[in-house]
Amino acid sequence: MTLRNAFGRFHADVGTGADSTVAIPTPPISSRLAAITRGGGPSGFIRSAALPLATAILAIAIFIVDTITPYEISAATFYVVVVLLSLRFCRTQGVITISAICVVLTVVSYVLTPGGNFETGIVNTSISLLAIAATTYLAVKSESARVTAEQAQAHLAHVARVTTLGEIAASIAHEINQPLTAIVTNASACTRWMYAQPPNLERAAASMDNIVDDANRASEIINRVRALATRTELKKTSLELNVVVHEVLALMQTRFRENRISVRTNLSNDLPMIFGDRIQLQQVVLNLLVNAIDALNAVPNDGREIHIISSKSNTCGATITIDDSGVGIDPASVNHLFDAFHSTKSDGMGIGLSICRSIIEAHSGQIWAAPNKPRGAAFCFTLPGDREKAV
Amino acid sequence: MTRVQSSPRPDSAVVIIDDDPSVRNALTNLFNSVGLNAHTFASTQEFLAWVIPDTPICMVLDVRMPGKNGLDFQQEFSRSHAEIPVVFITAHGDIPMSVRAMKSGAIEFLAKPFKDQDLLDAIYAGLEKSQTRRDEMAAIAELRARHESLSVRERQVMDMVVKGQLSKQIAAKFRLSEITVKVCRGNIMRKMQAGSLLELGRMSEKLDRIRN
After folding, report:
1. Do A171 and A128 fall within a single domain?
2. Residues A227 and A264 in one domain
3. Which DSSP letter does residue B35 get?
């Protein structure tokens, strides 16, 4: 009964857990997501460089206008827009630096401005400087609040997942332990009946019967657990794997930034459509990326890069490869990577990759790992195309 | 397998309280195989409705059960029935749980599945403790009965005697003849079945302790 409850919660959690990670994005993230999915092109680098470039051009334009117009026209106030834009691609430190540059530019413009009422100029420049300072202060404050909120949410999602898994593990351990105890105890009793003087074969045989019953009960419990585990209802739709990858990438931006990891994507444009559960496939990509981040964090700082490749598989399906230059795979554990409760991380539960495997298998796909050259690991999964599925 | 045990009295019994029927059956089977009687209960409520026989008893108690938890039950039960020691078994015990159980006087805290010998050792120790405790209680009851058989005057005289008063002093205090006090002292020694003054002193001390 308790097992069932725990499982119910687990399923609810897997569902809502993934949902809530999708629902988490605060406005900046979802707008980023929209921008990324709309872009759809192969190179993530150009996209991430576009906004800073536009901001720089705007700052220069404001500087020119502010310098050539007389003192009475206060174009410098528009530096506020530059500061607000910088919030989109910079951390706190960067925003402060950019606003400092704006302040310098305002003062330089003031010195260089050829004509106009000098006193009005002083007042206008002071107002502009105050506006820049106030905007920077508010921007930095809201940015740090947003970062804290995101961290708290990510932490919460993780804790919820780990606690439910812990609960399930405890319930299963309890349920299996009962018949196991009975088996061990009956076996000991059986031996004692046989070695008794005179031996009591009738009771010994009865003990053996009990053992058989108990063992059957244990296997029934295992079947029940398996049935519960596979009962997850897949909400399969026709979807594009590239979009799934982009959605997950949008969610993970903060983590990549925090861990100073650059992500390179190389997504094929002629990927066949896939028939699958969007949230579960997001979960797979998310788990693989989280593993890649952990692997990169275990090595020194230089060249921390994750490379995501999508391609058409030779069986008319789609393949996603996620490789990193992290610690790589221990050859000793290569055969157990996808086993449940097998982990090479000190704080790992050994659940992530086994969940990935069960999801991919539920989609009639395959998942595997290989060493990456010159170092690191590559995780690949392949899913059959939609047409194949429909037949 | 056939380790020599201090064999318990043949009328000794083991009480098993576990909500899992197969565990109950298996434990009964194990205890029977070493010649112990077993009484099984699916819950503590079921056990409380039972008339506890007047024999040495050791209890095997599961920690996690529907209704009252085994630990809470033991804490309450051991206050009224200290002569029934408890051996805990649990499918998922942790250190705080075992500390709590041992602090409230449990004989052993075993994780399922356990080694049969570990359980049997704990049960034998429990039955021995139960026997000792029952003997103690019987001795106390006997002592009390002897003390109650004394007359009021005899009890007063006994209190003075164990405080080291001489017959002469007691006689003076109660305005009796010395010979009457000596007869009274003889009666006390006989009724209390005390072989010496020292022994009587010990008995008096024990009675004081029980009264407190």
Report:
1. yes
2. no
3. T
CATH number of the domain bearing residue A360: 3.30.565.10
Selected residue of B14, B22, B24, B114 to mutate for chain A interface (largest A Cβ count, 10 A) = B22
Domain count, chain A: 2
Residues with Cβ < 8 Å from A159, sequence gap 6 or more? none
Average pLDDT in chain A: 78
Contact A267, A242 (CB under 8 A): yes
Contact B57, B17 (CB under 8 A): no
CATH code at B149-211: 1.10.10.10
Specify whether the CB–CB gap between A175 and A221 falls below 8 A: yes
B26 contact A CB<8A: yes
Contact B204, B162 (CB under 8 A): yes
As a whole number of angstroms, the distance between CA B18 and CA B26 comes to 11
B42 contacts chain A (CB < 8 A): no
pLDDT digits (tens, 9 = 90+) for A207-262: 999 999 999 989 988 887 777 666 556 678 889 999 989 888 877 777 888 788 88
Say what the ipTM of the complex is. Answer: 0.76
Query: What confidence tier does A161 reach under pLDDT thresholds 50, 70, 90?
Result: low
* Domain shared by A179 and A247, yes or no: no
Residue ranges making up the domain that contains A356: 236-390
Domain identity same for A280 and A349: yes
Considering only CB atoms, B22 lies closest to which of A173, A189, A217, namely A217
Q: Between residues 80 and 99 of chain B, which touch chain A (CB distance below 8 Å)?
A: 89, 91-92
Residues of A in contact with B38 (CB under 8 A): none
pTM score, two decimals? 0.51
* Domain over B13-136 is classified CATH 3.40.50.2300: yes
* Mean of pLDDT values over B9-24: 90
Domain boundaries, chain B: 13-136, 149-211
Shortest Cα distance from B113 to chain A (angstroms)?
Answer: 4
3-state class of A119 per DSSP? helix
Cross-chain Cβ contact B113/A185 below 8 Å: yes
Task: Tell me the DSSP string of B137-192.
Answer: HHHHHHHHHHHHTS-HHHHHHHHHHHTT--HHHHHHHHT--HHHHHHHHHHHHHHT
Assess whether A7 and A144 both reside in one domain.
Answer: yes
Q: In this complex, how many residue pairs, one in chain A and one in chain B, have their CB atoms less than 8 Å apart?
A: 81
- Choose the final residue of a domain: A217, A232, A247: A232
User: Final residue of a domain: which of A232, A266, A284?
Assistant: A232
Cβ within 8 Å, pair B113-A174 = no
A3 plus A95 within the same structural domain: yes
Q: What is the pLDDT of residue A13?
A: 39
* Spatial separation of the C-alpha atoms in residues A113 and A388, rounded to whole Å: 70
Task: Check A178 against B114: CB less than 8 A apart.
Answer: no
Using a CB-CB cut-off of 8 Å, the residues of chain B touching A185 are 23, 26-27, 29-30, 113, 116, 119
